[in-house]
Design brief:
Radius of gyration: 22 Å
Strand order of the largest sheet: 1-2-3
Strand content: 15-25%
Helix content: 25-40%
Oligomer: single chain
Structural class: alpha+beta
Distance between the termini: 51 Å
Order of helices and strands: HHEEE
Shape: rod-shaped
Length: about 90
């Protein structure tokens, strides 16, 4: 293998090695760590409702979620009825 071929191989290997790191640095590794707070659908479900009203909305995976509107930080948001203690996923 000549010198140019070796340089190309090294560059390709280096780029392939950095690709997963670029997704992690951008917060796009599939984890929920970058997202804070309820999804937009939870706020939309409570538009025109009052605290304590029962609502339903579609989750990110298309599942039907039964919830109750609650005030959080001055806004109404649908909080799932079967939410685990502590409010988050484990």
């Amino acid at each position: 293998m000549n010198k140019q071929g070796l340089v190309k191989v090294v560059l390709v290997v280096a780029l392939l090695g950095l690709t997963p790191m670029s997704g992690w640095a951008a917060g796009q590794d599939g984890s929920r760590e970058g997202r804070k707070g309820p999804p937009p659908e939870a706020f939309a479900a409570c538009e025109g409702k009052a605290a304590g009203d029962s609502v339903e909305f579609s989750g990110r995976r298309g599942e039907n979620i039964e919830a109750t509107c609650q005030e959080k930080d001055g806004k109404l948001v649908a909080v799932p009825k079967n939410r685990p203690e502590g409010g988050g996923r484990q």
